[in-house]
Design brief:
Blueprint lengths: L1 H21 L4 H5 L5 E2 L9 E3 L8 E3 L3 E3 L14 E2 L3
Parallel strand pairs: 2-3
Antiparallel strand pairs: 1-4, 4-5
Keywords: Signal
Protein name: Excalibur calcium-binding domain-containing protein
């Protein structure tokens, strides 16, 4: 009977703590990246420019980045689907 009780308690503890151990430690990071781009994180901001370019920010991204939606920051100047190429 004691073995069954210990087994039941151990199983309940494993179920209780297992989801916390596998949770994403940085859940907000993804929501801070614009879903219109893949590759390096393009931050959600009033304006984002390519790092090292002539843009005035306030945020910058080092590319290349792939445009997978609307290119709201005009990072893909030549329209080939990739922004901040140089």
């Amino acid at each position: 009977m004691a073995k069954l009780t210990a087994l039941t308690i151990g199983f309940a503890a494993a179920l209780t703590f297992a989801p916390a151990a596998s949770a994403d430690p940085f859940p907000l990071q993804q929501s801070q990246c614009d879903p219109n781009y893949s590759g390096p994180c393009v931050p959600v901001d009033s304006d984002v420019d390519c790092a090292g370019g002539s843009g005035n920010g306030p945020s910058y991204v080092s590319g290349p980045v792939t445009v997978v939606g609307d290119d709201i920051y005009d990072l893909d100047r030549d329209g080939n689907g990739t922004g901040c190429e140089s």
